[in-house]
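Need C-alpha cells for this chain, all 89 residues.
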Amino acid sequence: MPFALFPVRGEPTVDLARTAVAVARDEGVDLVVAVGGGSVIDLGKAVAMLLGNGGDPLDYLEVIGRVVLSTSRRCRAWPYPRQLAPEPR
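Here are the C-alpha cells for all 89 residues:
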C-alpha cells in the first residue's frame, strides 16, 4: 500500500498546514492518518478538512484569519477519511 509520511516536530503553523496539504495532494492521498500527540492530531484534522473542503487555512481561522467571525468560511464535508490516534503511553 503506497503512503507518504509527513513529520511534525512542533506546534503546527499555517505554513506547515499548507505544505502538508500540498504534499497530500501531490501524493494523491485517500486517507489521512495522524498518530502522535496533540500537534500531530491537530495537523491531521486540518489536512483532512482542507483536502475535503478546499481553500487556505486562513479561510477558516477565526480572529486571526482573513475573515470576520460572521462571514468565515464553513466546513461543508469530511470526504477524506481520517484516523486520529494518540501516541501510546
